[in-house]
Amino acid sequence: MLISLWRHALDRLRRPTEGTPAPDALREVRRLELRTRGLVDSLFAGGYASIFHGRGLEFSHVRVYQHGDDVRAIDWKVTARRGTPFVRQFVEERDLSVVLVVDVSGSGRFVAGERSAHEVAAEIASALAFAAARNNDRVSLLLVSDHVEHFVPPASGRRHVIQLLADLISHEPTGRGTALSSALDRLTKTLLDRATVFVISDFIQSTPDSPFRDTLVRLAQANDLVAVRLVSRATLELPDIGWMETTDPETGRRVLLDTGKKRVREHYRHSVLRAQADTAALLGQVGAELVDVDTASDPLAVLSSFFRMRRGTFA
To answer: Which of 23, 25, 110, 249 could lock onto 275 through a cystine, CB 3.0 to 4.6 A?
Structure first.
């Protein structure tokens, strides 16, 4: 089945049409699928539904309590009325909507002797998308810089995921900065059903003093929100190259800095660390989960640890 699907995709490449993935993008998607297969397998071996909590639960019936049942499921009103413990039973909704919000701003493509945040983001998005495809869940993609760059509507199936990831890999952003607030606000207004939303970004411009807080509150209240923060040496340390235009980590404004001065580089580093701490505190306040991924590390190993922790928390 897998081989035939890739042959079908290659056949489409021989007959180019609008929206068809480029050969290089398709090869990269194939590489990412192979690279992330181990994590996808482990997600299902450990219980996919216990990790992705975007599903809704519909009440089905009550039954007599049995040894080993979760006491949190006891229906105390029915128990009091009948004089013996009863537990509530729920039916999980069949499908889940997974939304991947990926920051494609210029900072994510800056490489200083290590993998770029853009490459790491693509790997993380691939693991999540292929896991959703295996469970036949819907997946959508929102690419963000200082505006909404590209949106792929939700759909299910491997072919949809291949096209979605090819769009992510081949996209050339037109914006330089990062403005997550407006993109997430738009997402909040367009999501009709509860979803699991992964925001993959360095969150440099997302500070508690911006509209970002109000947007996060609304998004987290209605959805399962996970922030995947990409941290790199390039994020924390300015190169010693003289005058350079960069984003102020505390205000989000573009500024010119003389990186040749040590005190300027140190001030910038401290500003980034303060902004990161503020963002982590904000995400905790609104009920979102935060996963820090160092771009110099293996992102799949970090994700695996996070999902093991999450499985234990919600078990």
So the answer is: 249
